[in-house]
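The pair is quoted verbatim below.
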Amino acid sequence: MSDIRVRIAPSPTGPLHIGTARTALFNYLFARHTGGTFILRLEDTDVARSSIAYEKDILDGLHWLGLTWDEGPDVAGGPDRGPFAPYRQMQRLSSYAEAAAQLLAEDKAYPCYCTPDELEAERRRQEAAHLPPRYSGRCATLTPAQRAAFEAEGRRPALRFRVTPGVVAFDDIVRGHVEIDASALGGDLVIVRADGTPLYHFTVVVDDAAMLISHVIRGEDHLSNTPKHILLFRALGYPEPAFAHLPLILNPDRTKMSKRKSQTAISDYMAEGFVPEAMVNYLALLGWSTGTEEEVLSLAELVERFELERVNKAGAVFDRERLEWLNGQWIRRLPPAELVDRLRPFLEADLVAGRIERMPSDDEIAALVPLVQERLPVLGAIADLVGFLFVESVPLDPALLVPKRWDAATALAGLRAARDTIAANGEIAFDHGGLEAALRGLAQTRGWKAGDLFMAIRVALTGRTATPPLFESMVALGYRRTLERLERAAAVLEQSTAPAAS
């Protein structure tokens, strides 16, 4: 094992987000590539918004992606494992209190008695004067007597960290040399609320130091926070980790990815039927380059090739079409038996939702694998492709039964002739070769284009214009049901074109 230690520290105040998943993946890849340690820590000090349900969503999502961690909780609400437990911040309050007491004793922090109303009034004055929001420092030099007077009023102080003036410089592995003037940080920083709960900027520094984090790999939106953290590391006498800020994930319009414009929860992609191999593959390519033309890479291959120095600075646009393409590539790579296992839950969900009327057996699903494996963009599309096999009848739109180059009378004649041709050939000739020869012969005899006849038959049997190959679909449907559906489609079309009774 190397001395490299990295962490992912999500807050259980919402579901696992695409951005958090990408950050977790990059930390995982870096740790595994270097022989380091990957840690999961839960930043749950926002008690009002944190929940065990969100914690479960995050942990389950990371497990689904295949990102195993070396230290931290394995299941929601479960015990921690690792030498620096606990790995939930609300169970680490004593360590924050100790660090806060150190800063207070060294006059690197001070009690702030400003009320929310006073701070809001100050912010409004600055806004009216077109000044950036900044704490004035009104409590920074209070005398003991002044503090006692505030205490007598019943005011409970927050704790503010004294931000040292000057330029904070650091070398970011992705961004290069960065310099930010402390004057841009908004003044002295609240690190402990008046109710005693510590804030993110404080807890993250205390925890990273306690857990010997060597590299902080996180999103670019944290870049402006880094000077605050560096100043806290220095004030507490902690060694500073290396920093690497990953490029933002962008919507197609190049705005920052948000749930208002994009689907951001990993659980939503799981529910649609994206496979973890594809999601990991795609997330790795959001802001990182292999240096080759290769795009389809397994998690093991990504670990072997990953280097932080190859992470891009520019924002990475989230392209759902590319993700679907990669998902299709990975579905095609699955062994048939495994594809059956992965399709089964989606068919069970389709049964519950009423999209199919009976659950196919594993043997039936396996027989369909050759028809669907090359055509599935997501596993959840299985009912769209073959759901017609597992219902008694399909809804029919008379307009769809009439191919573009045909009129209703021709379509009706085509459906009836197809039914009679199949029946005349009998069940013994009901296979791919026999069906294709008979129906192509019918089209040629009648002077029809085969594609038009086949489209009318396809809609009659499936209710849809896009399905797996027609003749394989007919064989899967079976001789009897094929004849019944052709008869029903002809009746529906005839009824739709019959003149209304006077």
In short: DSSP finds 19 helices and 13 strands in the chain.
